[in-house]
Write a structure and sequence with these properties.
The chain is of the alpha+beta class. It contains 9 helices and 10 strands. A 4-stranded antiparallel β-sheet has the order 9-8-7-10. A 3-stranded antiparallel β-sheet has the order 2-1-3. Helix 4 packs antiparallel against helix 9. GO terms for molecular function: hydrolase activity.
Length: 286
């Protein structure tokens, strides 16, 4: 009851102190009804307040103006700028890059995760491998992207619960010779560790469960350009091993872009994997 009352009080206070940001009204006039990335700027020229993206810049920015819970940010804002894109994919790529490089005050901070890991499955138990040691864009039999070893193992345990898999065969528990795992006695393991089912059956269920999380290897020899066409603009998004190099307007410009950064780009993979492999967008091999 106390927490609920406190929550209501916070909501009331936000609404009570909210004032429509008249000082920003002028920036609404030129906002286009097209995809892109927008930035709320404060007094500082180097530290933006907030960066966002939308398929309709005008509609999204105006929604901020009607949000009492954003009163603090709006009071500090002095101007709004925007960069149009051809579509949603370009907006997502640009937004992710700008947030990571500019670190706006009111955005969730995005930093390179040095503990990014995955589950790699060979002939035996799954192994936790790290992006700092292995190029995830080229390595086969990787499943899932996790921010820590703990998160990867928790996911493996969840799969074991769903599929009645053996913790011993998964490398989560040490098995004693001639004895089943602890979970077998609780009927939570189907018994591959004690002869109640074959190891092949166990591994088949494991493979099937992991397949939904498979990390796709980069399927091209080098970079490609993905063509995204909007109402007033066409962009070629240049990608190399799931890493976005930039967006340009011509194939000649695309061929000039070079990859300066190395390592697996988690955000790039999440944004680009499905659009690139879907066949919806025209591709240019560079």
């Amino acid at each position: 009851m106390v927490r609920r009352a406190a929550s209501h009080r916070l909501d009331f206070d936000a609404a009570a102190i909210y004032q429509y940001p008249e000082h920003l009204r002028q920036w609404l006039e030129g906002l286009p009804n097209q995809p892109g990335v927008y930035t709320f700027h404060g007094e500082s020229e180097n530290l933006p307040l907030y960066i966002g993206k939308s398929v309709n810049l005008r509609s999204r920015v105006m929604a901020h103006f009607r949000a009492p819970d954003e009163a603090k940010m709006l009071r500090q804002a002095r101007r709004v700028t925007w960069i149009p894109t051809a579509g949603d994919v370009g907006a997502q790529l640009l937004e992710a890059q700008m947030i990571k490089t500019q670190q706006p005050l009111f955005n969730k901070r995005l930093r390179k995760n040095r503990q990014l890991c995955s589950l790699q499955l060979g002939d035996g138990a799954p192994q936790v491998v790290y992006a700092k040691d292995l190029d995830f864009s080229r390595s086969p039999n990787l499943y899932g992207l996790f921010r820590s070893r703990f998160a990867a193992l928790e996911k493996l345990k969840a799969i074991a619960d769903e599929q009645r898999l053996c913790h011993g065969l998964l490398g989560l528990e040490s098995l004693r010779p001639g004895r089943g795992c602890f979970r077998a006695a609780l009927k939570r393991c189907a018994g591959a560790c004690c002869g109640n089912e074959s190891v092949a059956e166990h591994q088949q269920r494991l493979h099937a469960a992991l397949e939904q999380m498979r990390i796709q290897c980069w399927p091209w020899q080098g970079p490609v350009g993905m063509v995204e066409t909007g109402t007033n603009i066409t962009q070629i998004h240049v990608i190399d091993h799931w890493f976005w190099l930039g967006s340009v307007s011509s194939e000649a410009e695309a061929r000039q872009l070079q990859r300066a950064s190395h390592g697996f780009d988690h955000d790039g993979y999440k944004i680009l994997c499905r659009p690139l492999l879907s066949g919806v967008f025209p591709l240019i091999e560079l």
